[in-house]
Design brief:
alpha+beta; Aminopeptidase; 8-stranded mixed β-sheet; about 25% helix
Length: about 200
């Protein structure tokens, strides 16, 4: 067997393609839709503002639990200024790594016994299975960071989110003191094996 002393041959023009070099984590939904996930950075403010221009008014209301006409600078600043420990905003991006298609904020209390999670998806990227895959990722990251329980506060009108969270194992009950809301909880502590 002879060994060539030549290096690998250069790809022909047909074999060449543009690669996206990314620090984002690739995800694929059950429908085959591909997207990337990474934590928010201060440089994302403009892209996040653009993202919220593609979120329906109902979804804005469900995300922030109040009717807001738009996400202004103060709220954007809150979303991008995170400590990456007790407060994190995960971004889902299209495979171009530029277009934000969803956001998932986690805010934990001091001892990380409880954290609230809130997700919103760009309207033209719905119905591709990404909410399930994105929430699975967020749950795993919350568990990895030591959070014991995730809570989601949902408007009773947000049937899609409540159904998704229940299917994923969240338990649902009425939110104390507000009949218009539901409290969904997910225990992140490992279950004990039966003896």
């Amino acid at each position: 067997m002879s060994v060539s002393t030549k290096g690998p041959t250069a790809p022909t023009p047909k074999e060449r393609h543009n690669l996206i070099v990314s620090k984002s984590i690739p995800m694929t939904t059950r429908t085959g839709f591909e997207f990337h996930v990474r934590p928010v950075a201060p440089s994302d403010e403009e892209a996040l503002a653009e993202f919220f221009n593609h979120v329906t008014r109902d979804d804005l209301r469900f995300r922030f639990l109040s009717p807001i006409p738009e996400v202004g600078k103060e709220l954007l600043s809150y979303l991008i200024n995170v400590d990456h420990d007790h407060k994190e905003d995960f971004l889902a991006l299209d495979i171009d790594d530029k277009t934000i298609i969803a956001s998932a904020m986690i805010g934990a209390n001091e001892d990380k016994s409880i954290a609230e999670v809130a997700i919103v998806v760009r309207s033209d990227y719905k119905h591709r299975g990404m909410s399930w895959t994105f929430l699975e990722y967020v749950i795993s990251e919350a568990r990895r960071s030591g959070i014991k329980k995730l809570q989601s506060i949902e408007s009773r009108e947000n049937h899609a989110a409540i159904e998704l969270e229940r299917e994923m194992g969240f338990t649902a009950k009425s939110y104390p003191g507000d009949a218009t809301l539901m409290l969904l909880e997910f225990d992140l502590t490992p279950s004990r094996p039966e003896v």
